[in-house]
Each structure stands twice: as C-alpha cells, then as structure tokens.
C-alpha cells in the first residue's frame, strides 16, 4: 500500500529534511544590516560603554518612587519595589562589568601616546593638551584597578613597598604600603576630571580650526558657496564637535561629584540623567562612526555607438552593383 506522502505527491519526511527544517531554520532569516552595524559598534572600545547602565539608574528610582506613592494611596501593601531592587542589582553588575572591561584600558592609551608623537595634531596647543590627557589616563586606570580589586578583597590592603626590595630593616620585616579603596577611587576620578577639563580646552582649539577650515574653503572658491561634498564634510565635522561637547558636559558634573569625599549631587537620579545624556550621545557618535560608507553611484549608461557612415567609394561601388542587378531585369534607375 502506498504511503500517505506518496499518495499526496509530497516529498517523504527524512532526517535530512528535518535537519534542514529545524537546525537550518536560520536560512530563512534574511541578513540584517542593522544587526551587522550593531555588532561592529559593540565590538569597538567605546561600544562596550553601554547606555543600559545609566538607563537602569533612572528606572530604579522611578520604580521606587512609584511604589511609595502607591503605598500612600493605599494601592499596595508595601512601599518597597521588588522591580527597583532588581534594576539596582543589574546596574551594579553592569558597573562592575564595565570596570573589569577597562582593565585593558592602558593598552589603547599607550597606543594613542605613541602615535601622538609620530603624528602630532595640527597645533602645538593641541599636542600639549593631548599629552596631558594621555598622562592623566595613565594615572587614572591603575588607581581605578587597584580600588576595584581592594573593594572586592581580591588583593590585600597592604602591599610591600618597592623600596624594600633594595633595603632591609634590622628586624627583617618588609615595609608595607597601606591602600585605601575609597581614596584610590577618589584620586582615580580626579585624574578623570583632569581629562574632562582638558577636553574643554581641546574642544576650544577644535572649534577654532573648524572655523579656519570653513573660511579657507570659501576663500578658495572666491567667496562662493561650498560644494555638496564640502558642505557634507563640514557638517559631519561640526556634528562630531557638538557631540563631543554634549558628552563632556554630561561627564563634567559626574567627575566633580565622584572626586569629592561627600559628593556634589545629592539625588542619584541626576547622576543617572547626566550619565545617560553622555552615554546616548556617545552611542550616537559611535553608531555613525561604524556605519559603512554609502556605495558609490552607479556609472551612467554608455551611449550607443553612432552608426558609421559609409565612405563615398563604398557607396559608389554599392550603387554600381545595384545598377547592374536592376539593369539585368530590364528596368532603369
């Protein structure tokens, strides 16, 4: 008796077909340029600094406030919000992950300082500013790493002094350096604040160079307007400039707040808000930077080749040939 698949004319169900249908189901999913772009961005150094942490810092206080208001209105039994506590834990985990990820932060700083000396910026002022920024980061990262490791009891709070390697005390005991995680964190953030303040000076120099560039382009064209490509280039440069301004303005109050023992901002909502502004703007800039360039325009279709005109000699030969054929029939041209 024929099987049901044979009677219906369908293909028999085999292991290979099941394999293709189940394990190979992604073959029916079309490629996504958005996903490709996201992978490119998150694979960059700035892409690892995600927006999520600062967004969570805003969501958690909002949920806690909503729970308290609902409790006062008699809409819930407890003023505590389980969702707020969960979001706070996520924010803490994300903060730890970002700190751990920055353990490799010194490598791009070394790379930057080396390339800076071989390819200096346009002005001496910018060179000095970037040198100072690089050195501030060389101090920031080790202090942050030590503070993090101490706060998690990964390293002891007292380490042997490097001087004890070259000298010994009569008792034979090595001199120890006591480390305080809180103070190390304060000083690391202060060096970050130095970087942020220096970046405002950097942006001021960048602004002057952009203005000079725009004037030079107009002067080269005799005062006439810029071309489409030049306007697009200048627009991109100014967009990047203002993005850096917004990012720096977002980080400025945070670095000051974290650089002070008692802090500057009393409400953590503002911490999350400033951080979110900086993170979203940085995400936007990074997203643009990792976008693939647009494909070049297709060349115009080639015009059809003109028909070649016959030479006078060839035309005369053709005419004589036709006359002979026509004359043979008894007709005249």
TrEMBL record:
Composition bias, Basic and acidic residues: 315-326
Region feature (Disordered): 291-333
Biased composition (Pro residues): 292-303
Record's compositionally biased regions (Low complexity): 304-314
Name under which the protein is recorded: Uncharacterized protein
Superkingdom to which the source organism belongs: Eukaryota
Species per Swiss-Prot/TrEMBL record: Ephemerocybe angulata
């Amino acid at each position: 008796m024929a099987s049901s698949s044979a009677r219906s004319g369908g293909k028999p169900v085999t292991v290979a077909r099941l394999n293709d249908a189940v394990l190979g189901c992604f073959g029916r999913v079309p490629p996504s340029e958005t996903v490709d772009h996201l992978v490119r961005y998150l694979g960059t150094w700035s892409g690892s600094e995600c927006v999520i942490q600062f967004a969570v810092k805003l969501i958690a206080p909002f949920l806690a406030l909503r729970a308290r208001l609902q409790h006062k209105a008699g809409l819930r039994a407890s003023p505590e919000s389980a969702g707020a506590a969960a979001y706070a834990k996520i924010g803490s985990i994300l903060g730890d992950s970002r700190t751990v990820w920055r353990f490799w932060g010194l490598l791009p700083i070394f790379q930057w300082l080396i390339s800076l000396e071989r390819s200096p910026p346009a002005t001496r002022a910018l060179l000095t500013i970037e040198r100072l920024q690089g050195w501030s980061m060389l101090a920031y990262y080790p202090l942050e790493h030590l503070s993090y490791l101490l706060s998690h009891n990964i390293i002891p709070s007292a380490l042997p002094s490097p001087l004890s390697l070259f000298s010994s005390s009569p008792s034979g005991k090595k001199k120890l350096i006591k480390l305080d995680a809180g103070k190390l964190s304060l000083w690391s953030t202060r060096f970050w604040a130095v970087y942020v303040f220096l970046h405002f000076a950097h942006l001021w120099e960048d602004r002057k160079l952009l203005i000079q560039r725009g004037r030079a382009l107009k002067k080269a064209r005799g005062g006439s307007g810029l071309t489409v490509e030049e306007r697009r280039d200048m627009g991109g440069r100014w967009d990047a400039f203002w993005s850096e301004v917004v990012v720096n303005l977002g980080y400025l109050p945070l670095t000051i707040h974290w650089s002070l023992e008692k802090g500057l901002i009393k409400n953590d909502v503002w911490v999350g808000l400033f951080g979110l502004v900086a993170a979203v703007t940085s995400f936007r800039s990074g997203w643009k930077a990792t976008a693939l360039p647009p494909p070049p325009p297709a060349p115009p279709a080639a015009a059809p080749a003109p028909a070649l005109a016959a030479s006078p000699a060839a035309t005369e030969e053709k005419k004589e040939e036709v006359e002979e054929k026509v004359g043979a029939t008894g007709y005249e041209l």
